[in-house]
From TrEMBL:
Family according to the record: Belongs to the NOP5/NOP56 family.
Any one GO molecular-function label of the UniProt entry: snoRNA binding
Annotated spans, Disordered: 437-507
GO biological process: ribosome biogenesis
Described function: Required for the biogenesis of box C/D snoRNAs such as U3, U8 and U14 snoRNAs. Part of the small subunit (SSU) processome, first precursor of the small eukaryotic ribosomal subunit. During the assembly of the SSU processome in the nucleolus, many ribosome biogenesis factors, an RNA chaperone and ribosomal proteins associate with the nascent pre-rRNA and work in concert to generate RNA folding, modifications, rearrangements and cleavage as well as targeted degradation of pre-ribosomal RNA by the RNA exosome.
Biased composition regions of type Acidic residues, renumbered to the chain: 452-461
Claim: Disulfide bond is one of the keywords in the record: no
Biased composition (Basic and acidic residues): 462-473
Protein name from the UniProt record: Nucleolar protein 58
Subunit structure: Core component of box C/D small nucleolar ribonucleoprotein (snoRNP) particles; the core proteins SNU13, NOP56, NOP58 and FBL or FBLL1 assemble stepwise onto the snoRNA. Interacts with NOLC1/Nopp140. Interacts with NOPCHAP1, NUFIP1, RUVBL1 and RUVBL2; NOPCHAP1 bridges the association of NOP58 with RUVBL1:RUVBL2 and NUFIP1. Interacts with PIH1D1. Part of the small subunit (SSU) processome, composed of more than 70 proteins and the RNA chaperone small nucleolar RNA (snoRNA) U3.
Keywords of this entry: Nucleus, Ribosome biogenesis
Length: 507
């Protein structure tokens, strides 16, 4: 039975002389009290020394990841060619599984092996006689530093810390610039209050103060490099009739020192933004294309890292940054917020007020997919983000136009979107509709000659019905009379027909 012991200098393989001692875990430390007892239990079979620090670092990283390095593979192949039936005691279960899969060597890992490794570490100087203690300590320190730098450089959790720190510093610089600019405007406003209204740009305002000084020097100073011609003329005219107070040279010197500080911070902020932009394009290109550098960096900073942001669902990405509003809405049982940090993205800003919620939901879904591709994808490209951005812009146009299209024709022409407007209709009062009285029967003198003729025909029909004599001639006459009656009714106007029927009902 062999024991694999890993050292900063190389791999040491010991042979366990008495396997029964391994079963007595509680009393195993007694066998390692002195170097002589340790040498009786363990015998150094082979020591594979590392050539340089690079090889030691690769072996250490492979052991951390549970993989087998090349030097270890070569050593075990040479050792286990003759000793096929022997087993190997390892300190890491993952490394033992890797050895078993590739070399078919049975590996043992249990509590007894852990206690044995602790005892070997205690008597390592006597068991490894060829390596002095000072050299072993130096190699252990160098390997520890190299392994720490490797983890800091290549760990995906540590790379985006630069983005998080840069974005936090950028926000702090913006706050400081705003405070300094307010102080400079208020301070210089006592001397030249009209200048703050004439020059709205903060950087141009600071450069003007630094170049001119007091307002008495405004007329002789050339401001063409800072201000347009029209603004320059207005500033010089206002300086002649200004109502500000007089200040000393010491006061204007302190104000100019504040202006120097503002200009230096602004210059550093520009440099830091360029650094953040290039860093975001290298780390998360798809997310940067979708939401922009600033919003993407704020999302990563709020989540803690790019991998943490990739683990969030799209609904969480949508309201990331609005946690207070969310919990307040849940507590008061009101509507939850529709957007958080993603509100500052360009696509959400272009949408109208009623479509901002829909666009933030769509953008959050695509941003979640883009983040996962950036975090776990092997190739760094922005094709996915560009494709999704085109689709989101098309969706935004459809939402703004009302999503109306022609059903007939080519289908390409868009119909005009008319907003719904309530149209007020005015109804007039009709008193005739409220009349519930029956129509009075008109006198015979008031009726027209045609109505009189119709009445005579109806009376004749009634008498014929009562008589009904037998014979075909009278029936023919009756049919002729009915035909004449139908013709007269068709020729009569509709108003008179109504009057006639009402008279019949009254009779």
């Amino acid at each position: 039975m062999f024991v694999l012991y890993e050292t900063p200098a190389g791999y040491a393989i010991f042979q366990l002389l008495d396997e029964k001692k391994l079963a007595e875990v509680d009393n195993l430390y007694l066998e390692f009290q002195t170097p002589e007892k340790a040498n009786k239990l363990l015998k150094l079979k082979h020591f594979e020394k590392f050539n340089d620090t690079t090889e030691a670092l690769s072996a250490a990283t492979a052991a951390v990841e549970g993989k087998m390095s090349k030097p270890l593979k070569k050593t075990l192949k040479k050792l286990f060619n003759s000793e096929v039936q022997s087993s190997l005691l390892v300190a890491d279960a993952k490394l033992g599984n890797a050895i078993k899969d590739k070399l078919a060597v049975p590996c043992v890992y249990n509590t007894g092996v852990q206690e044995l490794m602790r005892c070997i570490r205690q008597q390592a100087d006597s068991l490894l006689s060829g390596l002095p203690k000072r050299e072993m300590t130096a190699m252990a320190l160098g390997l520890a530093h190299s392994l720490s730098r490797y983890k800091l450089k290549f760990s995906p959790d540590k790379i985006d810390t630069m983005i998080v720190q840069a974005q936090c510093l950028l926000d702090d610089l913006d706050k400081e610039l705003n405070n300094y600019m307010m102080r400079a405007r208020e301070w210089y406003g006592w001397h030249f209050p009209e200048l703050g209204k004439l020059i709205t740009d903060n950087i141009a305002f600071v450069k003007t103060i630094k170049l001119v000084g007091t307002r008495e020097n405004m007329a002789q100073t050339d401001l063409s490099d800072i201000l347009p011609e029209e603004v320059e003329e207005k500033v010089k005219e206002a300086a002649e009739i200004s109502m500000g107070t007089e200040i000393s040279e010491e006061d204007i010197m302190n104000i100019q020192c504040l202006c120097d500080e503002i200009l230096s911070i602004d210059e550093y902020r520009t440099h830091l933004y360029d650094y953040l932009k290039t860093r975001m394009m290298a780390m998360a290109p798809n997310l940067t294309v979708l939401v922009g550098e600033t919003v993407g960096a704020r999302l990563i900073a709020h989540a803690g890292s790019l991998i943490n942001l990739a683990k969030h669902p799209s609904s969480t990405v949508q309201i990331l940054g609005a946690e207070k509003a969310l919990f307040r809405a849940l507590k008061t049982k009101k509507d939850t917020p529709k957007y958080g940090l993603i509100f500052h993205a360009q696509l959400v800003g272009q949408a109208s007020l009623k479509n901002k919620g829909k666009m933030s939901r769509s953008l959050a879904a695509k941003a979640s997919l883009a983040t996962r591709v950036d975090a776990f994808g092997e190739e760094a490209s922005c094709e996915l983000g560009a494709t999704h951005k085109v689709k989101l812009e098309a969706r935004l146009r459809l939402l703004e136009e009302g999503n109306l299209r022609k059903l007939s024709g080519t289908g390409k022409a868009k119909a005009k979107f008319e907003k719904y407007q309530s149209k007020s209709e005015v109804f007039t009062y009709q008193p005739e509709a409220d009349n519930t009285l029956s129509v009075k029967k008109r006198k015979h003198s008031e009726s027209s000659p045609a109505e009189v003729q119709d009445e005579s025909i109806l009376e004749a029909e009634d008498t014929n019905k009562d008589l009904e004599p037998a014979g075909g001639e009278k029936k023919k006459k009756k049919k002729k009379k009915n035909k004449n009656q139908d013709q007269e009714q068709s020729e009569a106007p509709p108003a008179k027909k109504k009057a006639k029927t009402k008279e019949q009902d009254s009779d």
